[in-house]
What does this fold into?
Amino acid sequence: MTDKLVAPETDHFSDQAKIHHQIRDKLREAVSSFDTHHDTITGQLESSQTEHYSDWWRLLKNYMLDQADLHEQLGNNLITAGNNYYTSDQNVANKMQETPIPPLS
It folds into this structure.
């Protein structure tokens, strides 16, 4: 009881954070891969032929990178929330150890 008061055995905060960091990595990987294809395509065509495509790709790329950043922030916030939760839980457990609740009469 001195280790944890109510904290679960598995770290759900960390598990969720890992998922969001994996999503971030996949989005950035996709953008990098698509950038290579975009450069190959636009390098073989005249700029007038690819103007609309380039505009579309720039918007999609920015959207995907923004999404990756949001997943990174969410993952980091989950890690912080988990750390705060476990610290608070430990503090409560320690306090209860120092000042036990008297038995009911």
Remarks:
- The chain has a mean pLDDT of 86.
- DSSP finds two helices and no strands in the chain.
- Residues 3 and 59 are 50 Å apart (CA to CA).
